[in-house]
């Protein structure tokens, strides 16, 4: 029977209330301790002696009704005073032998204890003292630390004499976010290093960071299972208590360090030492020798140039700056966004991976806010903040120094023409990865202006893959995890600038003026933002996928040599797996849902009730695709029911931005009255606002693409035959049309790369039939489904991507400009924008968002692959077979036939 719980004295109770109630406790910690308690006796294990850790642990076990500590080794007696004043007199003359006996009695009674494994050394603190009862104080011989060996030996002996297990639960309190240092100074010698602080430094860290403490629990060690495993591994013979204690201590310290590293990341090196290691790296030195030849002076010059490049590039993470930036974000992010939703389960997976591996974060890139979001999320979640690759266009004052101290390192957009610079970037990223720093960069290269993902750029990814492979060859056991991340917005801050660029305007260079304009835009409301994490990928896993596809009977991991071709295939596969994962986990937001409904209903305006019905239909469709939904949109993701308030709030968001007009029938016309979203409202999207809504809609466009390749030919056939149920189309012809459309849109959308077109087409056709969207007869003909719900779904698939088809029509018609001679891509795109504007005003196309510069530029790339366009001297030309006005018109006719 457990003894009655003790209560702290008034002074200690005040300390508990004042300093420890702010400790944010991860429910996983309490759950892990409770699970251990259900199995046996819990012993809390802490790495280094700290009375502050003990007091915090004592407070938390009381607050959360967890097993309470009845013994703690090596603490000063006044720390144990809250256990009752009777303890004070009883413990004044206790020896280590008495403490061991007390621990044994505690365990025999089934009570919990706290064990500190080490006592950190410092010059201002004397070595450990043992007091013999009635005798003089004796200095214990030690290596600078008091090991917990005697207490672990007692735990082992107690376990041998009982059936129920003793669970050693590692506990880590992190009182400072400053990373451990690889180089110690005089302060460390006096007060103990950060990772092994003495009493004085412990108090200093506590007072400076008590509001930001982090608590983690490691995987418990079942002492009974540990002993049984040791017996099995030694052929039924015990290896001896000394060996068992040493191995158990190592196991516990490793798990404690694992948890600590999961919070702080790798040890921080002095900046000059890191630069020296980068510049001296063998690969960089080889390139310097190749460029300089035999001249020593030339080598020194190139070495200094490399050092200068590194200084311009490097990150200088400062926890104090991170804290200040976090506080500043509280004043801006909260004003910009009405909520921040993130994938808690995904973040937990990332946290586990961070303990044993190195993270490479690969988020989508839609806004400059992306640079802040993950850093802020990791900082607040007590994870090591990533070092972020940022374009050197953001290194201007004052933004550059702020981002640099928040973990940004600045690199050029292109390394072409500067071999040395590329080698410095390679060496720097290799060193960061080898040291274990989490890295973050954007596979898309730049921000997406359209809302959908851009094709991946492989440059930085190839460097990181090389670094990971090199570390593995060098004997490193740490895995490298590639983490796909989707960052979603209902509205992006740069929306106006993006619309200007989409309609042909030039991109403006980032500067202080742009920073001030962005700060001014923070006064607006941009809805909610959300972060979703995809499946963590490894190089080994990607290689196994490639091997299994090459040889289906293979189990993967065949040990094939990594040839240059196989390595390139691995990098490419990894890039597209990441992009597919980002698309898969992208969460549907209220803004994206309402924007999709507003742009695809096909009428002049839409009433609120119909808008709700359309949104509910879209959610049913997306639910069938296993899409994720933000908590603000649906209550139960497994059975998604749209929140009506979410639709109204999205309409209010777009109304404030000027993206929709709200009309109430019966109100006088021309009096300047504005309606409000609600049951009586009708919504109309002004033509000039369609591009803004299209950015929101494109957040989810990828979900519809596969079925749209089938829906577009089917709806075109139905429209041509003027049949309500849809004209029948031969399966072979439908497959031909769908494949041609897929090839046309190869630069626009990302299609599956893990199966052949025929396999994907068949699977998609089967799924559409199962959902009642299509019918197939015995002859193999395909037509629209009979139910209105099924037909509406097919029409939805087609209308979601209709603007892209119309954009390619614009691009096709603009090719007539080449009849007069070659044009640069920039000039041809400018001509296409003018052509598109005329086509929209003349009513030849429906969607104003079709007049989009990225769309027509992608169309030109596809036309080159189709043979409609050629290139010479960096300019577009018409091939001889399409060099007349009549043949150019056939290109437009082929595209328009899909409508």
Automatic annotation (TrEMBL):
A Pfam family reported for this protein in Swiss-Prot or TrEMBL: GPAT_C
EC number: 2.3.1.15
Predominant subcellular localization, coarse grouping: membrane
Pathway(s) this gene product operates in, as recorded in its UniProt entry: Phospholipid metabolism; CDP-diacylglycerol biosynthesis; CDP-diacylglycerol from sn-glycerol 3-phosphate: step 1/3
Matches recorded under SMART domains: PlsC
GO biological process, one term: CDP-diacylglycerol biosynthetic process
Keywords annotated in UniProt: Acyltransferase, Membrane, Transferase
SUPFAM superfamilies associated with the record: Glycerol-3-phosphate (1)-acyltransferase (SSF69593)
Tagged with keyword Acyltransferase: yes
GO cellular component assignments: endomembrane system
Subcellular location(s) per record: Endomembrane system
Residue intervals of the Phospholipid/glycerol acyltransferase domain: 359-490
Family, similarity comment: Belongs to the GPAT/DAPAT family.
Protein name per its UniProtKB record: Glycerol-3-phosphate acyltransferase
Native organism: Labilithrix luteola
